Amino acid sequence: MSAIAITGxxxxxxxxxxxxxxxxxxxxxxxxxxxxxxxxxxxxRQFLSGLSGxxxxxxxxxxxxxxxxxxxxxxxxxxxxxxxxxxxxxxALGFVPSKGLHVFLELDENQRKQxxxxxxxxxKQTLQRTSLAxxxxxLEFSVTNATLRLDAALPVRQLTEEIERYLIEPPN
Length: 172
What we know:
This protein has a 5-stranded parallel β-sheet with strand order 2-3-1-4-5, sandwiched between helices. Helix content is 49%, strand content 16%. By secondary structure, it is an alpha/beta fold.
């Protein structure tokens, strides 16, 4: 396994899961690199236009396409150098790593809204004035039969264990 892409709506716990999964995989002796697409987006703004605003807002498909070559390059590096790359964030939209796993976090809308309230003030404001309908539809479209769909309401420890089981014994 070279890469794990974690996607879901804002507030589903992508970052929380990625950090915990990375820690668990490291405890188990793996070399791990965590790549948050929001941080990548901020860095790439120095060199590319079209990456303003949150990943889930505006022309998110175009933003994801701009970021994709960098995700592919990092995945190829993970394969070459023998570490596990965990990619998470809204701009991982539609990215299914070769020799990797796509994890999709699902959460009841009321629970997701409650989690949004815990976000930083500016993130809460942006989410309140942005419709997620188109992004939600694009996320659902990116899910394939090979995607590991997880209930984000479960404790992060349990989600991590489910991913570990999948990595050990992927379904046929």
